[in-house]
Design goal:
- With about 140 residues, the protein is mainly α.
- Strands 1-2-3 form a three-stranded parallel beta sheet.
- The chain has six helices and three strands; from the N terminus they run αααβαβααβ.
- The model has no long low-confidence stretch (mean pLDDT about 90).
- It has helices at about 10-20, 30-40, 40-50, 70-80, 95-100, 100-115, and strands at about 55-60, 85-90, 120.
- It has a single domain, classed as Alpha-Beta Barrel (TIM Barrel).
């Protein structure tokens, strides 16, 4: 939820070091990366993420539009910078998410993995209803 953009820097560093000490891989979530990609500042985002103690990066376009080619570049760049990469497929807006077919999702998952994503999430939102892998009642499709 991008809290690392608005919380005291020392607090974030303290939190990420505690996560790491507990064997948990902290990452700042995909929305901040999406904004940095739109502004042409992915390199700065990765540098700042490293300085804050994040060890993983989420590559997504759930709130924005990032081309498949740009996703591939970002995944490769994050891996080259030493991050564990988690990509996410799907949209936060249910109307836009419903426009993605199963075959399009699978193609994107395969592409992300081929370009170096360590792990792929399917967008499902916190409510778990009518988006991603969930139907309107919250059942897995």
């Amino acid at each position: 939820w991008s809290t690392s953009a608005v919380i005291n820097r020392d607090l974030i560093i303290n939190k990420t070091s505690r996560y790491q000490a507990a064997g948990i891989m902290p990452y700042p979530g995909g929305t901040l990366l999406e904004v940095s990609a739109l502004k042409g500042k992915v390199d700065q985002f990765l540098k700042e993420s490293r300085e804050l103690g994040f060890t993983a990066i989420e590559v997504s376009d759930g709130s924005t539009e990032i081309t498949k080619e740009e996703r591939a570049k970002i995944i490769k760049k994050a891996r080259e910078a030493g991050f564990y990469v988690i990509s996410e497929v799907g949209k936060k807006n249910p109307i836009l998410d419903h426009d993605l077919s199963i075959s399009e999702r699978l193609e994107l998952i395969k592409s992300d993995l081929a370009y170096g994503s360590n792990y792929v999430l399917i967008e499902a939102r916190e409510a778990g209803k009518d988006i991603g892998i969930y139907d309107a009642d919250g059942n897995i499709i």
